[in-house]
Amino acid sequence: MELSRSLPRTDARVAPQMDVLAVPAGRHRGWYLSLMAPNTKGPTFAWLDPSRLYCNPQALADCVRDLLTPFHNDAIDLVAGIDAMGFILGASVATSLRKGFLAIRKAGHLCVATQSQNYSDYTGREKTMEVRVDVLKPGMRVLLVDQWVETGGTMRAAIQLVERLGATVAGVAAVAIENTEGGRWIKDHYRFSHCVPDELQSQVDHKHLDSFKSFSS
Ligand SMILES: O=P(O)(O)OC[C@H]1O[C@H](OP(=O)(O)OP(=O)(O)O)[C@H](O)[C@@H]1O
Ligand SMILES: Nc1ncnc2[nH]cnc12
């Protein structure tokens, strides 16, 4: 079966490729964001769906490459991904770097000794995340990966866990880091990477990409 098709050179921000496995001839930075699906589940949370882009092998590879570009000259000992969707990108990044992967989990799943951290996220709910205590050590440089940063509450809790165990946050990587107070705090205090070109950042912040106008799955 043919997994990817070459399409005419076009700007995917204006004319998105709705075939999820298609690859445009010109792959500008962030082209794969137009593969994202809009929220169709109602108005409670304006959640976007980056997981659709992971289905396209070239999109996943380009996304991982873009997330790693700012860190090319940096020492990274371990990649940590945040439950749940951060596991996909985190493990892909770890494999690309040939480093190990540490799962930072929502509470109640790790049946080993853990450190835990309370936090709240874009839902406003109080949550707890946990990390096993037998991996992170002082001096270890950890790249934290998640799918998305909205309020920054989730990422900040993960940062606190890593630092409390004495390790160093080498950087923070996510498909998108919204320009919220918490998102800016992360950008101000840590090395970071994301996949959103400047001209799409305000669309991301408003939870609506122009590419959704012609979205059909
Ligand atoms: O910046 P914040 O406001 O804290 O929100 C960011 C978090 O929210 C999403 O995960 P969510 O828990 O909704 O879903 P998931 O379990 O599917 O990853 C996202 O992947 C981040 O982990
Ligand atoms: N995938 C996502 N899209 C939009 N906002 C989010 N907030 C947390 N995750 C998000």
Automatic annotation (TrEMBL):
It catalyses: AMP + diphosphate = 5-phospho-alpha-D-ribose 1-diphosphate + adenine. GO terms for molecular function: adenine phosphoribosyltransferase activity. InterPro entries: Adenine_PRTase (IPR050120), PRTase-like (IPR029057), PRTase_dom (IPR000836). Its EC number is 2.4.2.7. GO terms for cellular component: cytoplasm. Keywords: Cytoplasm, Glycosyltransferase, Purine salvage, Transferase. Belongs to the purine/pyrimidine phosphoribosyltransferase family. Homodimer. This is adenine phosphoribosyltransferase. It comes from Mola mola.
